[in-house]
Amino acid sequence: MGELATRMAAAVASLERVPREVERVRALDDEALLALTRVAADEVRLAQLHVSLLAGEIARRSAPELGSDGLAQREGHRTPEEAVRVATGTTAADARTAVRVGAAAAAETPTALGTAVLDGRVSVAVADAITTGLGRPTHQLDARALDAAVRSLLERAATLDADRALREARALRDELDLAGVAEREEERRDQRSFRIGKKANGMGWAHWVLDPETLAIVSDLYDRVTSPKRRVPSFDSSDAIPGRGSADGRVGADGKGNADDLASHEEDAGGSDTDERTLEQYASDMFTELLRQGSNSDTSGLLGDGPAAVRVIVAASTLEQRRGRGWLEGQTDPISVDTVERLACAGGTIQITVDSDPNNAGQPLNLGRERRLFSRAQRVALTARDGGCRWPGCERPPSWCEAHHIEHWLRDGGRTDVADGILLCRHHHLLAHNNGWEIERAGPSYTLKPPGSDASPERWRDMPTHSPALRDALSA
Fold first, then answer.
1. Which of 23, 27, 164, 442 has the most CB atoms within 10 Å of its CB?
2. Do the Cβ atoms of 145 and 176 come closer than 8 Å?
3. 58 in a structural domain
């Protein structure tokens, strides 16, 4: 099989010689452990590249026009993807990815993405995410424009994992093709479905594919049910809602916000201390009870509030010009202006001013030193601005988050202003208070600084917003 086979066999033999004793791994210090994890990821990335190149060639030799003479069918497989799955022992999804990326990398006309894959600069998973997110050319967005979009993403490829690459690619597609937002929204809506069935043991199953608007409604209920706080909070005694807890980011009397202080106002997700249900069981029971009570019943006893709420976030200029897009809170895919207007008509609106002034940056609600806890209106503004926990890499939704003073209330004399508040999930809120992490603001941007001797500038990390609407408004 020649040089290629010899080198691949040598690579496998080399990996076989790498020690696999658990004791050796446990003997590593933290820095070495993380460094070797990155090296192992490089091993996986190169191995996946080899599989993709071979899968692409299997697909070429199994082209539909070859019929039963194609390689896959000669080997007894319906498709090249099936042939790859059987040969590699991977999942069908992994096999499809390998075929797609391998075929693209081996295309007769080289592409920027294919070249990046062959050079080893981009993993197979990230390459497939970029391709999937950007989609296919249309009359509104031709192949040349998509190729330019690929190049812009490749500039940041080293900082993107597959999930983030997919989100950024989809967001870039929507930004370049505003006219197609409504069409893609309708395509997603058409994919909604609900099926229910019985199992032989008397149990049942349900399979529900939700369009983004339905997902926003169901997610609002699910997040309330499964949140560690379980109930979206009141923010001080003046605007408390009966039956609801607190997630305002309050700290203890000493201003240090220790774990006991922060935990004291939260309930376990299962309810009382004697409730032994899992989160999944609890969610199942709650949704069953909601359905049983019916849509017109009072759900405050279950959810601490009324009906499911869906917030739409959109730049004021978009509504004024009736051109552009909006977002359902917590969703990454945009919705059309027509949908924004329909939802506003059905549910009313709350205006949150967002502009590009670096001294404002969408942060208009200030309470200064008059009140320590963030108000409900401020919480709405923080949710619209941050879109969830802003700790780098965290994906917790707004309903799981607490509002943190970046300048601590007692220690620093901090102000209860939206500009000086930031959403953090409880875990990262505790880290910020108990482990010495600091957050610094410069205009609309926030920077996370590690504690103590680790706080050298090269270890500072940006804390980007999860809200595409805010990014859209500030770039207008």
1. 164
2. yes
3. yes
- Spatial distance between the Cα atoms of 171 and 173, rounded to a whole number of angstroms: 5
Q: In whole angstroms, what separates CA 25 from the centre of its chain?
A: 31
Instruction: Say how far residue 362 (Cα) sits from the centre of its chain.
Output: 22
Q: Where are the alpha helices (DSSP H) in 248-375?
A: 259-263, 279-293, 300-303, 316-321, 337-347
Q: Is residue 299 part of a domain?
A: no
pLDDT band of residue 346 (cuts 50, 70, 90) is low
Q: What pTM did the predictor assign?
A: 0.56
Q: Is 144 exposed, middle or buried (0-12, 13-18, 19+ CB in 10 A)?
A: exposed
In angstroms, the CA 243 to CA 118 distance is 58
- Percent composition of the chain: helix, strand, coil (DSSP 3-state, to 5): 50, 10, 40
Place of tokens 């199992």: 199
Residue 77: inside a domain, yes or no? Answer: yes
Q: How far apart are CA 470 and CA 382, in angstroms?
A: 11
Each residue's pLDDT tens digit, 298-319: 555 544 454 555 678 777 778 7
User: For the segment 201-231, what is each residue's pLDDT rounded down to a tens digit?
Assistant: 878 899 999 988 888 888 888 877 777 655 4
Strand stretches in 202-344, DSSP E: 204-209, 312-313, 326-328, 334-335
- DSSP H helices, 61-123, are 71-74, 80-88, 92-105, 112-119
Whole domain around residue 86: which residue ranges? 2-190
- How many domains are contained in the chain? 1
H-run or E-run covering 2? helix 2-16
Residue 85 belongs to a domain? yes
